[in-house]
Amino acid sequence: MLTIDSATRDAIIAHAKRDHPNEACGIVAGPEGSDRPERLVEMLNAAGSPTFYEFDSGELLTLYKEMWAKDEEPVVIYHSHTATEAYPSRTDIGLASEPGAHYVLVSTREHGNNDGPVEFRSYRIVDGVVTEEEVHVVPSLDDPNSPEEDA
Amino acid sequence: MAIDVRIPTILRPYTGGEKAVAGEGSTLATLIDDLEARHPGIRERLVDDADGGADLRRFVNIYVNDEDVRFLGGLDAELSDGDQIVVLPAVAGGGLDHQ
């Protein structure tokens, strides 16, 4: 299960809508081993494509060095699909290389840059096997007693 | 000659879970051969031997002292004692089935 706060979820959706028709991508970092997606980092899609995304190699290194310095890891790795459902493609599965991360997919195929609901789904991708998981959206990661809302 | 190599999570099964290992080599190619001798299986994850010639895998990034090794000659890049190597898989994918 992915537990994420609503502000971070909304920011990921806003990024995907803003970059449509290209794919948007980024991560949410959190303390190592915590499974807490705390720090959203929007990345540039170096591929600049409606059907492909790739972090720029220099920015990728900068990002990981920053996480290592803070004892963080990528808790969530997200990207958007712009014409297909929010489900990992064969490309996504073949290139998935963080077995500990939640892979979040957002689909902007229905409303593009405009307001409207967006598919927001999360998966584990390990050794080529995709497992969808529940997304639990909370007002704040720090308040376990806060009322819950469904994704 | 010792060179530090930072290993990403996905390749740590080859290094017994170690985040960083030491290797030796005067070029990236010989360093990778040395890593393979110590951690069998790792070379295949870094190097593509298809099409008759060895090349770095498209979706693996290797940095020498923070510089993408593709700009330093790839497998032929020259290394020196004390160099810091980082291996990071690309973060990539996309809606179309490219593979």
Question: How is this structure best described in words?
Answer:
The complex is a heterodimer of chains A (151) and B (99). With 151 residues, chain A is α+β, with helices and mostly antiparallel strands. Chain A has one domain: Cytidine Deaminase, domain 2 (3-Layer(aba) Sandwich). In chain A, 22% of the residues lie in helices and 35% in strands. Chain A has helices at residues 6-19, 57-69, 90-95; strands at 2-5, 25-31, 39-43, 53-54, 72-81, 102-107, 119-126, 129-133, 135-138, 149-150. Chain A has a six-stranded mixed sheet. A three-stranded mixed sheet of chain A has the order 1-9-10. In chain A, β5, α3 (90-95) and β6 form a beta-alpha-beta unit. The longest helix of chain A is centred in the N-terminal third of the chain and has 14 residues, at 6-19. Chain A is globular. The mean pLDDT of chain A is 94. By secondary structure, chain B is α+β, with helices and mostly antiparallel strands. Chain B has a single domain (3-89), classed as Ubiquitin-like (UB roll). Chain B contains two helices and eight strands. In chain B, the strands form two sheets. A five-stranded mixed sheet of chain B has the order 2-1-7-5-6, covered by helices on one side. A two-stranded antiparallel sheet of chain B has the order 3-4. In chain B, β3 (47-48) and β4 (55-56) form a beta hairpin. The longest helix of chain B has 11 residues, at 28-38. The relative contact order of chain B is 0.23. The mean pLDDT of chain B is 94. Classes of the chains: A alpha+beta (151), B alpha+beta (99). Chains A and B meet through β4, α2, β5 and α3 of A and β7 and β8 of B. β4 of chain A pairs antiparallel with β8 of chain B, so a sheet runs across the interface.
